[in-house]
Design brief:
The complex is a heterodimer.
Chain A lengths: L10 H11 L4 H31 L30 H35 L3 H15 L3 H12 L10 E3 L3 E4 L2 E4 L1 E4 L3 H29 L6 H19 L3 E4 L2 E3 L2 E3 L2 E3 L1 H28 L2 H9 L4 H31 L11 H13 L2 H34 L1
Helix pairs in contact in A: 1-2, 3-4, 3-8, 3-11, 4-8, 5-8, 6-7, 8-10, 9-10, 10-12, 11-12
Chain B lengths: L1 H18 L5 H8 L2 E5 L8 E2 L5 E2 L1 H14 L5 E5 L5 H6 L5 E2 L7 H6 L2 E3 L4 E3 L1 E6 L13 E6 L3 H12 L4 E6 L2 H10 L4 E5 H8 L8 E3 L7 E3 L2 E3 L3 H20 L6 H5 L4 H7 L5 H5 L5 H9 L2 H8 L29
Parallel strand pairs in B: 1-4, 1-5, 9-10, 9-11
Antiparallel strand pairs in B: 2-3, 6-14, 7-13, 8-11, 8-12
Helix pairs in contact in B: 3-9, 3-13, 9-13
The chains are: A alpha+beta, B alpha/beta.
Chain lengths: 400, 338
């Protein structure tokens, strides 16, 4: 009598079992389900409990406060804002200020970081020692200390407005910041912008065309006179036709401060300086590690092809190093963004200071405001990670 | 600061049940053997620690008076220093029993924070501190000035209202703590430091050359400062409220820290009621019959506390002004103990 082989379970059920329950199968699935249920129950209890008690104590809850008038002013705002706007507006003012510091900080941190890393790897003894000293000094001092150093020791030592350092009578540097002429748009402004955009697009197309000619047919085309003509000539012609695109409002000392002109406040400068130099020290080490991770033979091969050291780095080493550099670099970008909340120590009106600070204590709605603020920082960080992952994906794809 | 407010918020979200609905603050305090009192992080005259770590000041004396009324010992207080930002959360979450931290009584704070003001310890108003070298004599000359202010205070809104109302421009720089604000003012980042006048006098003492700075004559707001307690415990509300009233009534009745024992033997009916030799008013509050004597013994009457901390007997040297008794030209007035 032949023994009938047992029918194997169908592929689909097996897969499902593994996916939901891991090795333990259905039992594992039940455990996971239980775990999620307990987690959900705990979160529900926390929310319901807080809500019930807030109500019992008649503490105002909910998000209605966002429509109330803020009634206080803010020293720096990129979007129009006055004291009679709502708390929602305050939130956006703070958010924009946080993003501004983060984006500019990330930019400078990356530039300085790469420069210091290349300096440290340079065969020039002095340059590499100076870069090394920079990294060791800056990364080993607390960030809050560095912010206060720039703010209280460096920028506060500048002269008062009446004794400003003046450059050409147009730029004024004092302990209230850097005052510069403010551009005001004229009717010729819009055609000017369009002309610049058109010139940039045309220049890009021309450049790509020249490159294709070089790679495919080995033909070298001199493009720079055309590029120059496009980028300078086109906007110039437009402004001749439509009139000057902008006029400048000159700052004038009046009373305690300069009236007119635009101003870079010292809180912003101190924070950006501190954040970008501090983060740059870490980025420098990450970049150095990335470059060293590329096999020495790559560099030698490049040199034997007759490339300069700079070209070897730019064309061969750094593209390969980017794969190693990118993940820890993302971490540094996230750190910089989060560290920007230290702005509260020097009175820079970032999200944490104006929203989780002033707004919180004026409305007293701690749970809602801290919740929103946490959510926003989380969102900024996740978006940053997503952009960096996308960039990483493109790099690894281009390398095959 | 960030961490403190986060921890407090989490405590508020998760742990409200422990304090929330319960109306037994007095019992909690007695069981703990200590009053937990929220004060400032250091404001001379109101609440600041001395070099030995002992807290002194008018707000501190209110805490000590409450502790004395409960324990007959004004030292049984745990002082919790709080920033302007964290103070209400600390009270809501039950970390402190009383908030006695130069806090301005306003309608929105009285209603939306789940807490009540119990009285006025100090009638204050907002003013401006400027360097004498600027040669400014009035706040109306401050157009286009840079102003340093501590964030999370009514000051910020008053400032906006005042400059807007007088059609003047200004730049505001808001800091988290009073120390940072004063440092920025001293470094020249701002022309003006604005705060409650009492605080201006107190902070001026910390500056390198106090005589180089002057408080402008304008007082631009009403700032009645007083203690706060949580909603939902009327007995505790009464105790804190009447402790302050007892201090004011003691001054009116002429009872001082020195003569309290003699006065306790007095035959005057209002004194007999206060000292509990006639009736049981203290017990009605949930305290003991001798609650009044305990308070005066610990901190003296309101006038003594004022003089010692902010008035003529202190470095601040602030005149009684509005804070004098109602029958001496001020507006300090307490309901009768009867």
């Amino acid at each position: 009598m032949a023994i009938e082989p047992r029918k194997p379970p169908s592929q689909f059920v097996l897969k499902l079992q593994r996916a939901l329950g891991g090795r333990a199968g259905w039992g594992g699935f039940v455990l996971q389900l239980l775990f999620v249920a307990v987690l959900a129950w705990i979160s529900y209890e926390i929310v319901a409990n807080a809500r019930a008690n807030l109500q019992a104590q008649r503490i105002t809850a909910g998000f209605g406060f966002l429509q109330n008038t803020a009634g206080f002013d803010v020293s720096q705002s990129l979007i129009p804002y006055t004291g009679s706007d709502t708390y929602t507006r305050v939130f956006f003012v703070g958010l924009v200020n946080t993003l501004l510091v983060s984006v500019i900080g990330v930019f400078f941190a990356t530039v300085i970081g790469f420069m210091v890393a290349l300096g440290r790897l340079s065969p020039n003894w002095l340059l590499s020692r100076i870069s090394g000293a920079y990294v060791e000094l800056v990364r080993n001092l607390p960030i809050l200390f560095q912010i206060l150093f720039w703010y209280l020791a460096v920028l506060a030592a500048l002269p008062s407005p009446r004794q400003s350092v003046s450059v050409f009578g147009m730029f004024f540097l004092n302990n209230r910041g850097l005052v510069i002429p403010r551009p005001i748009g004229n009717p010729g402004f819009e055609p000017f912008v369009v002309a610049v955009l058109v010139a940039i697009v045309a220049a890009l197309v021309l450049w790509r065309y020249a490159r294709r000619q070089l790679y495919q047919y080995g033909r070298m085309i001199t493009t720079w006179p055309y590029l120059l003509g496009l980028l300078i000539g086109l906007p110039l012609v437009t402004s001749l036709i439509f009139g000057a695109p902008v006029t400048f409002e000159m700052p004038v000392l009046r009373g305690f401060n300069f009236a007119g002109g635009a101003r870079l406040i010292p809180e912003f400068v101190a924070l950006t300086l501190a954040l970008s130099t501090y983060t740059a020290a870490f980025i420098a080490e990450i970049v150095r590690a990335g470059i060293l991770s590329v096999h020495k033979g790559q560099m030698e091969a490049g040199s034997s092809l007759g490339l300069h050291r700079g070209e070897v780095l730019r064309l061969i080493v750094i593209p390969q190093a980017m794969r190693v550099i990118l993940p820890p670099l993302t971490n540094q970008y996230l750190n910089l963004t989060k560290n920007s909340s230290l702005a509260v120590a020097i009175g820079y009106p970032d999200l944490f200071s104006v929203f989780a600070g002033t707004t919180l204590s004026q409305t007293g709605q701690a749970i809602e405001i801290i919740g929103i603020t946490m959510g926003v920082y989380l969102l900024i960080s996740l978006v940053t990670s997503a952009i960096m992952s996308f960039y990483g994906w493109r790099i690894s794809r281009s390398m095959g | 600061m960030k961490r403190v407010s986060l921890v407090l918020t989490l405590a508020l979200a998760a742990g409200l049940s422990a304090q929330g609905a319960s109306a037994q603050t007095l019992k909690t305090v007695k069981d703990r053997g200590m009053l937990s009192c929220g004060v400032s992080q250091g404001l001379p005259g109101f609440s600041s620690p001395d070099d030995k770590g002992n807290w002194t000041g008018l707000d501190v004396d209110v805490c000590r008076a409450i502790a004395a009324a409960i324990f007959n010992d004004g030292t049984k207080v745990k002082f919790v220093p709080l920033s302007a930002k964290d103070r209400f959360t600390a009270l809501q979450s039950g970390e402190i029993d009383v908030l006695s931290r130069n806090t301005t009584w306003t309608l929105s704070r009285d209603t939306s924070l789940g807490a009540n003001f119990t009285g006025v310890t100090y009638y204050d108003g907002q003013g401006f501190l400027v360097k004498k070298s600027l040669k400014v004599n009035s706040a109306l000359e401050l157009n286009s000035a840079s102003v340093c202010v501590q964030t999370g205070t009514t000051t910020e809104q008053n400032l906006a209202d005042y400059f807007k109302g007088n059609n003047m421009k200004y730049e505001v720089i808001a800091f988290a703590s009073a120390d940072e604000t004063v440092k920025a003012y001293e470094s020249g980042r701002c022309d003006v430091f604005t705060s409650d006048v009492s605080q201006l006098y107190a902070e001026r003492l910390k500056l390198a050359n106090p005589a180089d700075h002057v408080v402008l004559p304008e007082v631009i707001s009403k700032e009645p400062l007083g203690p706060m307690v949580r909603h939902g415990d009327d007995q505790w509300f009464d105790i804190v409220k009447w402790t302050l009233f007892a201090m004011v009534d003691a001054e009116e009745l002429g009872v001082t820290q020195k003569n309290v024992d003699e006065m306790a033997k007095s035959d005057k009916p209002e004194l007999k009621r206060a000292f509990g030799t006639d009736g049981n008013l203290g017990e009605q509050l949930g305290l003991t019959k001798d609650w009044f004597a305990r308070i005066v013994k610990a901190t003296g009457n309101y006038g003594e506390a004022f003089d010692r901390n902010v008035g003529a007997g202190s470095k601040l040297g602030i005149a009684r002004g509005l804070n004098n008794l109602w029958n001496k030209g001020g507006i300090q007035y307490a309901p009768p103990i009867r």
